[in-house]
Amino acid sequence: MTARAFTPVRIGTLELKHRIVMGSMHLNLERTDDGGAALAQFYRERALGGADLIITGGAAVNREGAGGRTYALVNEPESTPALSRAVAAVHEAGGHLALQLFHAGRYAFEATFGLKPIAPSSVYSRFSRCEPEAMDEQQIQRTIADFAAGARRARELGFDAVEIMASEGYLINQFVSPLTNLRDDAWGGDAERRRRFPLAVLRAVRDAVGPDFPVIVRTSGADLVDGSSSDRELDDLAVALVGAGVDALNVGIGWHESSVPTVQALVPHGHWLAVARRVREAVRGAGFEAPVIASNRVNSIPLADEALARGDADLVAMARPFLADPRIVETSRAGRLELVNTCIGCNEACLDRSFGDEPVSCLVNPRAGRELEYPPIPLPALPASHEQAAPPASIDGPGQVAVVGAGPAGLQAAATLAAAGIRVDLFEAAGAIGGQFQLAGRVPGKADFLETIRYFENLLPGLGVRVVTGTHVEPSDLAGYAHVVVASGVLPRTVKLPGTDLGHVVDYRQAFAEPTAVGRRVAIIGAGGIAVDLAHLLAEADPEREITIMRRNGRIGEGIGPSTRWAVLAELRAAGVRTLTGVVYTRITADGVEITNAEGAPELVPGDTVILAAGQEPHVTLAEGLAREGIPHTVIGGARDASGLNAVRAFDDGLRAGTAV
Ligand code: SF4
User: Fold this and answer.
1) CATH number of the domain that residue 593 is part of
2) What ipTM is given for this predicted complex?
């Protein structure tokens, strides 16, 4: 790293110690009935972990602008305790907190408060499935005043800055876009008139807070919706905002209605930095020095540092990486990158939840959002050993816990137990830890899953866990332990179909292990997340492959989170993978799989290789043996319940077991 990331920078009057911003995330903790305790602790830990400037989730400036029931309402007294508590917590921890002022416009849901969403024009939104009401002059003036009142309130509550949300297709962005602003009055028309609303909001906010209070605008660098604002128009807006006195621009990417993936794992790291660079060049070209913040698909400090050193931006905002690792700044600054718990871009416990009411958390850090419920895992004091621990020569007697299985559930359980001071032996039958993450890490766009394995490989020895790989344990091996956590995972579900014993039929594990041994024509029985991943892997390994995935019931990719599924399926379509649903299997033959298709017609799905990926069953052999021997144990993860198993639940099980034992 060049350490550019760790040089100081100013946003208006705000002096920051470094250039990494914790970006805005709605957490669904903003209006819980705990008075903001969980929210404050969430932010406190991030500030303690080195976040100097944290931007809150969107705080709606009025009810009709709220993105959901759980949004903070900055101008209503009921939100004051939680917001004040968050400010106090971050300040106590030495950080700064900016409040994001938010109005969803046509992305609001009528059901939230029974209010009809409003927008510049009545243009149907696929995201909220509503046709908003076009704002009249009075509504426009009132909304501008609400932004100003929210900013004033933020200053009164002790916030260090405000960020005006004007990106991601929300209200202000809707005024800027020719797609959603069809007005022919002074607030619509050409690009200059469509810029009038954001500039009016900015000026009203500036008037409300005074010249010395830092104001950031999250402005769109690319809408990624056909027919919306051009790059030139967005650059002109950025320049106009800076000219009107904004202290920093945070460059957002894409709308919720965009069909271009922006934050999914399959988007390459750093992909959007060029957009921030373009905006920055426009601002500099116009003679302004206001800092520009880049965001989206930057998940490590070294990558942010490279971007800063290259001059893509003056600061880099990262959001999800702070969910995955509250200490990412401090750990990275200390050069202990091997101990950073990296965000893998899955969206499963964060973005996918943020559109509902369930508190946001993190797949690889199930404690996120529940910092008051579960103790933290300490950073090992000494550099972690990279050497594999030798198998224990003997069991040291009572007080020790054995964890069997080093997939997600077992890894999390082992770390949580060790963090509580319990001596843990972790046994894994395979030659390496990681379980199904080892398979996932081979899938195009999922290489970051291997970062999770790297994290635990370094963390566990550092916490004193003895990691014993390549060792199959029987109940008799475990008799001396005070408790056994069984995280033995899953087995492929048995498929009862004539022909499964043929030589060209393999299960998904074999196909993952040796994709080159899979034939040119591939029939995959099953179409859940694993089958989709496998199809993706096989298609990339050989673009000429003819691949079909099929299932009896349900949708292709069922179980993949909503923010990711559409993007992954688009990739499959682009790779030419054929998908069939509603099929009835007849038998497997030497040529493929005979089915009756959804139209009721018989069909042979060609397959030089037929892959069984029709779900999973709990691997219960060990648990049954322990029960027979009367050895105290807890069964977690897929070994407990394989139905609908996903990694979020596996990590969560590990955390719970690690705390309960
Ligand atoms: Fe990142 Fe996934 Fe955690 Fe979200 S749930 S912060 S995408 S690792």
Assistant:
1) 3.50.50.60
2) 1.00
